[in-house]
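Quarterly update from the structural biology core.
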Amino acid sequence: MESVLMGTYNPINVSLEKGQGVWVWDKKGKKYLDALSGIAVTSLGHHHPHFIAALEKAAQHVLHTSNILTIEAQLQLAQRLTEKAGMEQAFFGNSGAEANECAIKLARLYGHKKGIACPTVIVMENSFHGRTLATLSASGSRKVHAGFEPLVPGFVRAPYNDIAALEAIAHNNQDVVAILVEPLQGEGGVRLPSDDYLTKIRELCDKHDWLMMLDEIQTGMGRTGQWFCYQYQSIKPDVLTSAKALGNGIPIGACLARGKAVDLFQIGSHGSTFGGNPFCCQAALAVIEAMEQEQLPENAAKIGKYLLTELKETLSNIEGVVDIRGQGLLIGIELEKPCRPILQMAADNGLLISVTSEKVIRILPPLILQQKEADEIAQILAKVIPQFMAS
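Predicted structure, tokenized:
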């Protein structure tokens, strides 16, 4: 049966059948604490009553029309999302990669309007922006690039969290029009920059008339304790991308613009058959409503701080644990050796996690997580990590 699928994934031996809150069950009835959330997607948890009711209601109406027609739910979602993000305009696609493609296209249009023949976007080492040709070219991972050359031109790479490197590029490259950066690198190993990193990027973009473009596909929608991670600083980007938790499992991505990035697209500049259809937009509206009602960004900040403290107290003295870091409910535990086998070991003990950047256990539970469940995550990892390191 597996041979009918292209070999792009290497799944562990767990097949889920149902879920409730932060818990899921496999076909054999085994129960797991979900600290994965479909890779930061199901932030409301599983079978959330408000979300399910909204989907059922939406399914009784029009699932899909076309952007040739006016879509009221799309207008409503654009209004709500731009308000939360401090932005002005929205374009809806189907994924994070598409949202980032949209951002890259905006940067190129912006450059051409300035008379720059080869607009260049600064991107970061160890970044991840998607799997399309443009977004994998923007990503800072040789593993993601391998086999897909020639890469899309128009990108120049800088070390993450290095303002001096950005200033050097500004001095030597007159074709730069934008910086695309993650406020916190998720796929790159849960890497947190210095507190003033985004502020200094904003200053640099203002100085050189560049677009500041933030990829908040993983960090946005409450994951780090704010609606968007950049809101820990007193700045705003020119372009902001969102996806993953925006639809809580229903595919939707958004590219938001403000200021000098507004109205760059004209009729026919960009489009999507499925992007912003009524069903997906109603799903995203329900996500925003549930997050507001249950104050989930605030809960992510509170429980995330508690979980990070518990993990440090529980795991720091375990041999092989290099570092424990994170913000909100996006937490990384770096080990001294590649640790993908720990996925199955954790699942055997009733915990679903992910591994990124080869050596980093990534914890991404639903934002409804409570203290008791956070304790269980720490307890299971305190059992599994020593077993793995001894193997």
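Residues 51-293 form a domain with the Aspartate Aminotransferase; domain 2 fold (CATH 3.40.640.10).
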